[in-house]
Design a protein that fits this description.
two-stranded antiparallel sheet; Bacterial Protein-export protein SecB; 93 residues; alpha+beta
Length: 93
């Protein structure tokens, strides 16, 4: 889900929300790779379209153009993976 909120003089100018999804077949994927595919590759394919939809909706609503920065889903996955590993090790100590 993407959510954009703009305020002007502490008043809400607009709120735009988008729930966007895809259907992926992972029948031939190795089980160890499924999590990474779902959290890296699938969002990497969907995000540019969701970003474009939001930008178009805001622009078509008469507001200035919104440019949502690209997201590095691999870096997010790795950071989350490392944080979970750190928390697990700390909990065991």
């Amino acid at each position: 889900m993407l959510r954009l909120e703009a305020k002007l003089d502490n008043k809400t100018a607009f709120i735009a929300e988008l729930t966007y999804g895809g259907v992926f077949t992972l029948a031939t994927a190795v089980e160890e790779q499924v999590k990474a595919l779902l959290l890296i590759d699938c969002p990497r394919l969907l995000f540019p379209f969701a970003r474009a939809i939001m930008a178009d909706a805001v622009r078509d609503g008469g507001f200035p153009q919104i440019l949502i920065a690209p997201i590095d889903f691999d870096a997010l996955y790795q950071a989350n993976k490392n944080n979970v590993g750190t928390m697990t090790a700390a909990g065991a100590a």
